[in-house]
């Protein structure tokens, strides 16, 4: 409560996956990434200090997500790890476990999985996909 001041997610977007675009394969990014299309693969931030993922209303990810900050308003079929701040907006549909430090859930968001609070933002977390790999 009186500890260090909470970091706000960066509003800067360095990369965009546009609507109608479908990517098969893992994505590794730095800075900010906005997804309006579809990704079949894992989405992981390489910069564990200040990464931001924005997933728009009609966007979809089939795979694991690991970022510092995330604003989700689309569909994620896989686990999510957000080491600082996770916002689940009204159209968010999550099928998988969610590990978070700070969480904001809007009315209408759906999570089919476990929610696990993680106090230490830098603790290593390993989540396995439902495929058993």
Description:
- The chain is mostly beta strands.
- It has one domain (15-114).
- It contains no helices and 15 strands.
- The chain has strands spanning 15-17, 22-24, 27-29, 32-35, 38-40, 43-45, 52-55, 60-62, 65-72, 75-77, 80-88, 93-95, 98-105, 110-112, 115-117.
- The strands form 2 sheets. Strands 1, 3, 4, 6, 7, 9, 11, 13 and 15 form a 9-stranded parallel sheet that branches.
- It is globular, with a radius of gyration of 14 Å.
- It starts with 14 loop residues before the first strand and ends in a 16-residue tail after the last strand.
Give the SSE layout.
Elements: E1 15-17, E2 22-24, E3 27-29, E4 32-35, E5 38-40, E6 43-45, E7 52-55, E8 60-62, E9 65-72, E10 75-77, E11 80-88, E12 93-95, E13 98-105, E14 110-112, E15 115-117
Parallel strand pairs: 1-4, 2-5, 3-6, 4-7, 5-8, 6-9, 7-9, 8-10, 9-11, 10-12, 11-13, 12-14, 13-15
Whole-Å distance between the termini?
39 Å
Question: Can you summarize the main beta sheet?
Answer: 9 strands, parallel
How much is the radius of gyration in Å?
Answer: 14 Å
Order of helices and strands: EEEEEEEEEEEEEEE
Portion in strands: over 45%
Count of beta strands: 15
Q: DSSP helix count?
A: 0
Overall, the morphology is globular
How many separate domains make up the residues? 1
Percent range for helical residues?
under 10%
- Give the helix/strand class: mainly beta
Low-pLDDT ranges: 1-7, 121-128
| Residue-averaged pLDDT | 86
List keywords for this structure.
133 residues, mainly beta, 9-stranded parallel beta sheet, 6-stranded parallel beta sheet, 15 strands, disordered N terminus
